[in-house]
Design brief:
The protein is of the alpha+beta class. The protein is built from 15 helices and 19 strands. The strands form five sheets. Strands 1-9-8-7-6-2-3-14 form an eight-stranded mixed sheet. Helix 3 runs parallel beside helix 10, helix 4 crosses helix 9 and helix 11 packs parallel to helix 13. It is globular, with a radius of gyration of 23 Å.
Length: 472
């Protein structure tokens, strides 16, 4: 059992020597900070690249050792710590595999960072539409038939970008076959596995890196005990150049990395590397008790998905946004809400660790009872009318959108126009409108439905004024 935490141990040793800070950051080990004491107490560890702490962009000591342990844990060719979130990993893997005007196949319900990467690179996206998953009531994974169709139409693609698992915990059982298909054509497969850093543990779906993907990016902070923004990137490939990925990581990541994040990544790697089958069984037993307790709450529907860390809750006749509001009044904060449900992310417990599941169950019951006093607002169970062609390209490339003259128009008069910006329901961060796409009746209907039930949006829009950005 490995107990090494190279970065954590180096930081501890450094601080124990009571150093005098004559370097950045300017808070001087917290001495000049006016933060509350609970926040201030961690600032002595907020250090920079000093002697004994290594150099993040050219590691030779403790960071190199920590990343080597990460590589060993995930059985990759090379793994990297990321301090700018999974976003920077998605940017780097796309920069390393494709150039301006080259084609890349992309799952249509990818995260916004994937589309930002395509826009920055200037690549031509071939969108493949995922299947509808009735259990989670979401668009999930792309079928292998759709991928085959895309590869037959577009024989000159440079890479395929897939999401696994989805935000909602749905994991495709066709990913291995899709990877093998792409490799038979010498096409690398890049996987946004933001929500699957724990998949190498027993009793969970396999990780994309285990299934043969060339580059896999994971948000360690989403399901492992890491700080926000702390992520991993793994490479295991003969088709993707490790040095090229590293080159873009050095360009795109901060030149002043947070050592708190690096220590957190080191700790999260240690956590999953030492996660035993007995830990999985302990977690699953606690999960089972929670689900049984929730199923006893009248009117509450509990939906399990492929990833045991994810759990969906629904109350028939009410939106997820309404349920979320009632849960928050009980100080229960869920990961996201949509028109049907809320999403819970459970803790990846180890044997003996406690979590307030009993209190959680009481608060959820109180929230459901309060919700049922309100008027029912929706007819649940409807599939969306959001029609998408299985394999599609945008009317305009990202570069053409950038060059085109644009204007703001009322969204009610935008049917048939070409979107000039992203409109992103957030969470989950999957764009509804993409730059260069034609605005259809079905997409507009979904936008209006989301606005009506109180969804939040990111992107380039003025929805508070009922305006969206289009090509003139």
């Amino acid at each position: 059992m490995k107990k090494e935490k190279p970065v954590v141990e180096a930081l501890q040793k450094f601080v124990e020597n009571q150093p005098i800070s004559m370097h950045v950051p300017g808070h001087k080990s917290g001495l000049l900070s006016n933060l509350p004491n609970g926040m201030k107490s961690i600032l002595p560890y907020d250090l920079t690249e000093l002697t004994g702490l290594d150099d993040f962009h050219h590691p030779e000591e403790v960071i190199l050792k920590a990343e080597s342990l990460l590589t060993e844990t995930y059985q990759s060719d090379r793994s990297f710590f990321l301090v700018n979130g999974s976003t920077v990993g998605n940017l780097a893997m796309i920069y390393a595999t494709c150039k301006r005007n080259e084609k890349i196949i992309v799952q249509r319900n990818a995260h916004k960072s994937i589309f930002h990467a395509l826009e920055l690179v200037g690549a031509n996206a071939i969108y493949v539409t995922p299947k509808w998953d009735e259990s989670s009531k979401t668009f999930a994974s792309v079928s292998i038939e759709t991928l085959i169709e895309a590869l037959q139409i577009h024989t000159d693609v440079k890479a395929v970008v897939l999401t696994y698992p989805t935000y909602y915990g749905v994991a495709s059982d066709e990913l291995k076959a899709q990877i093998d298909l792409c490799h038979s054509l010498n096409i690398p497969v890049l996987v946004d596995e933001a929500h699957g850093a724990h998949f190498i543990a027993n009793k969970f779906p396999p990780s994309a890196i285990q299934l043969g993907a060339d580059v896999v990016v994971q948000s360690a902070h989403k399901t492992l005990p890491a700080m926000t923004m702390a992520s991993f990137l793994h490479i295991k490939s003969t088709l993707v150049n490790v040095k090229k990925v590293n080159h873009y990581l050095r360009m795109l990541q901060s030149s002043s990395p947070s050592y708190l994040l690096l220590a957190s990544l080191d700790d999260a790697r240690h956590y999953i590397q030492t996660y035993l089958e007995s830990d999985s069984l302990y977690f699953l037993s606690k999960r089972k008790l929670l689900i049984e307790a929730l199923q006893a709450i009248q009117s509450l529907e509990t939906i399990e998905v492929d990833d045991p860390l994810k759990l969906l809750l629904r109350v028939n006749g009410y939106t997820g946004f309404q349920l979320k509001s009632k849960l928050e009044s009980q100080n229960v904060f869920v990961e996201l809400a949509d028109s049907n449900q809320v999403l819970l992310i459970l803790p990846l417990l180890k044997t003996g660790q406690a979590f307030p599941f009993a209190d959680l169950r009481i608060r959820i019951k109180d929230a459901v009872n309060a919700l049922k006093k309100e008027r029912r607002t929706i007819e649940q169970g409807k599939n969306p009318s959001f029609e998408m062609t299985k394999v599609a390209t945008s009317e305009y490339s990202f570069n053409q959108v950038e060059q085109a003259e644009k204007e703001w128009v009322p969204y009610t008069r935008s049917i048939g126009r070409i979107s000039a910006g992203m409109i992103i329901p957030y969470p989950p961060g999957i764009p509804l409108f993409l730059p260069g796409e034609k605005i259809t009746v079905s997409k507009l209907s979904q936008l209006e439905e989301l606005l009506m039930i109180g969804a939040s949006f990111q992107g380039q829009h003025q929805l508070d004024k009922k305006l969206i950005y289009v090509i003139k």
